[in-house]
Fold:
Amino acid sequence: MITAFGEDKVQRLFFFAILMLGGCSNPTQNAQDAVAYNLLDPDSAKFREVRTTDTGAVCGQINGKNRMGAYVGFKNFVAVKIGDEWFSTIVDLNNDVMGAIHQQRYLEACDPEGLEHFLKGEAVAREVERQVQETADAIEAEINAEYGFPDDEPVDIMETTAPEPTDEQIRQIEEASSPDE
Structure:
């Protein structure tokens, strides 16, 4: 028989357990939130065939609305938690290069033995992104040096003016435009 004290203790434990469970995050929901964030209208996300692999990757299909407000059709997705952050990929086969890369990532991550390949792919993607940014920075620095733009100020190349022509260039233009005698 449970005494009043024991009954109170059981109720407190039960209440504590409910609070703990209510505060626990749902990995599948967190993954779906991360995937939906990539959509134009995250609130329009519809999911199906969502599953968690033995390795913790969350795989499934997502559908969302386009700019016109119409659903575009279900596409495969994969989400993986690395540290405290969720990384997700939606497979868009209409994009030739990236679609193929995302399809490969989807297949690798949703195959329990392929998660390691997916994580390596993420590292490769980050390295490629770093190299592209490095190249863009080098090109910007070269343009700034060639045209005398300050390095610390953004420049809108569409609003910049051409340098003033030299006296020699003006003379050549005048000679080329004067009528032959």
